[in-house]
Amino acid sequence: MLIKGGWECAVSKILGIWRRALKQNASMFSFYATVRCVLKVLKREGTVVPAPNFSASGDAAVLDKAIKVKGVDEKTIIDILVKRSNEQRQQIKEAYQQSSGKPLEAALKNALKGDLEDVVLALLKTPAQYDAQQLKLAMKGIGTDEDTLIEILASRNNRELLDIKKAYKEDYKKDLEDDVRSDTSGDFRAVLLEILKASRTEVVCDQLIDSDARALYEAGEGRKGKDCAMFIEILATRSFPHLRQGLLDPSPAQQPLLLSSATQMLFYSFILHFFPHIVKCTGSRPAFFAEKLNASMKGKGTRKNILTRIMVSRSEIDMKQIKEEYKKNYGKSLYMDILDDTKGDYEKILLALCGDDS
Which Pfam families match (predicted)? Predict the structure, then answer.
């Protein structure tokens, strides 16, 4: 018999039972944390959702008319693209190609300009294609945008990383790992290459926590100097709940092993110094992106590349949670800051991606 409220309600009830059981058996903590992590993945909190009664051919025809009308109907273009999921946009692209004989991207690129064009073209890419493009741009020309590299790679799961590598290879005819290897160096390069193996665990394991703690001790205090390779392996291959609950914020059962020495502080200092983005993702991914958004609009000028990238890439995933963290941490809604910091059609499309001012 189904429990009233659906599967989410049922799982919530189960988690409640396990939470109470924690008082009797601490080893159940890992199971509870793992299920909670899975729930967060399954329950996406995006502001952009699939449109009901969707017709790819119908939307393609409406877009074609909006593109060809005198002066271009930007409002209709924004309304169509923002109120469709990425999967639906891919179907619209196919329908437009079939009906007009040319790519929708090319038609919109000719019709639009400036910041609106950038956002629209970003929305037409698959998430993996867009991430691949942003990574390519981060390594293009003189110098490397390390913040963008680690922002994207540290915040994507294994499946997303594999999709990004595939898209990168298809679009740029090179392996992403090869470009990262040639464009970065040292411990930073080592962590990125380890992350790109897409082998991060997605559960919390008590036994692994214990072995990691011992390995960190041997790599840190147990030898002269520190073995950064071990730090990097653990940092790049363990799940964020594992890093947070097991090593950076251990339960009472693990504290004696870690906190009897300075190993935990050494590990934390290492990643905080070299990879603050990973530390922040470990704590709260929505809070991490809220901070990035706030920084993009803080002070004189707007870092539009960051603002656009996050608004597009998180709109179907966790934008609602990002908005909550933004309001909580900065005392003002994300919607209002976008309203104050941008203008014109760029403002309109970002506000549409943001959702209402709640």
Answer: Annexin
